Amino acid sequence: MGQSSRRRTHSLVLLAPALLGLLLFALFASTARSDDAAPAAPVACEPSECTTPLVTPILEIPGDSADPADRDWTPPVGGETPGADVPKFAPSPSPGADAEPSTTPAPPGDFDIYIPEIASDKPVPTPTPTPTPRPGPVIYLTFDDGPHPTWTPRVLEVLERYAAYATFFTLGTNVDAYPWIAADIVAAGHAVANHSYTHANLALLGRAGVESELVRTQSAIASATERSATCLRPPFGSVSGTVTSVADSLGLDTWLWDVDPQDWARPGAWTIANRIISVARPTAVVLLHDGGGNRSQTVEALEIVLAELSARGYRFETLPC
């Protein structure tokens, strides 16, 4: 081999490593570009064969912060929107878990946490209704000399049928004898008042006698009804300075009457009723009796009076006792 041939061979030997390096660099660059263009397909495997656990990525909500006021996320209306991010207060169930449908209602506004109202097990008290005053003129029915075991209950029955209220001027002796009837009078919404203890003519008594009659009756009424009487009707309507003075000292207002049909004389039920109806006027005080004798005519007349005057628009209330 000549000298020229040896020089060419030596040059090729020196260039071979450089050419090999350029070839390897070009091959590496081509492989890198291919990886960027198409990601590698995932390797499919059966759940039992996979060793790498499946991990659900945590979805970050844009604008998420610790302060709910800084969040600009608004929950979708009408249920979930396909592909929408799931808010943090309603996370998606884990893969493979049996998720139950939520019974929590959707929040009314842009809140990230909804706390349903917890119902109280305490009963709600029913408010007491305020009675509405009935219209129409008022007549005051009053009954003396009771209570009586026969006639007073019958009078109460008639009054109840017409939603009428009355004032009963009672004798202390009868209240002590029939305390439960006095209690029934009060329980039905009527008033119990003082008519002396023995039906004595108070105008003929001294101060000590008047005090005894009234104080004993006050005690009997309070014991039977647990209320203190505040009104007095002296028997026979007999009033004196002494009677007025004692009554005032006991806090008793004295009441007489405007209409006296004299039912105590038993002139007949229709006569008693006509004597009341013919002179009826607003605020009139009517005198009747539920004790002191047979009061069947009074009971019958009371039914007639209440039916007629109720039809005329009258209402029947207790005296301010």
Radius of gyration from CA coordinates: 52 Å
Helices and strands: which structural class? alpha/beta
CATH superfamily of the domain at 138-316: Glycoside hydrolase/deacetylase
Whole-Å distance between the termini?
Answer: 155 Å
The share of residues in extended strands comes to: 5-15%
Order of helices and strands: HEHEHHEHEHEHEHE
**CATH fold annotation of the domain at 138-316:** TIM Barrel
Overall pLDDT metric: 77
The stretches of 5 or more residues where confidence is low (pLDDT under 50) are 37-45, 47-120, 122-132
CATH architecture of the domain at 138-316: Alpha-Beta Barrel
Count the E strands.
7
- Distinct helical segment count: 8
Largest sheet: 5 strands, parallel
The general outline is elongated
Fraction in helix: 25-40%
Which CATH first-tier class of the domain at 138-316 would you pick? Alpha Beta
List the defining traits of the structure above:
single chain; 321 residues; alpha/beta; five-stranded parallel sheet
List the helices and strands and how they pair.
Blueprint: H1 3-37, E1 138-146, H2 151-161, E2 166-170, H3 172-177, H4 179-187, E3 191-194, H5 207-225, E4 231-232, H6 241-249, E5 253-254, H7 269-277, E6 285-289, H8 296-311, E7 315-316
Parallel strand pairs: 1-2, 1-6, 1-7, 2-3, 4-5
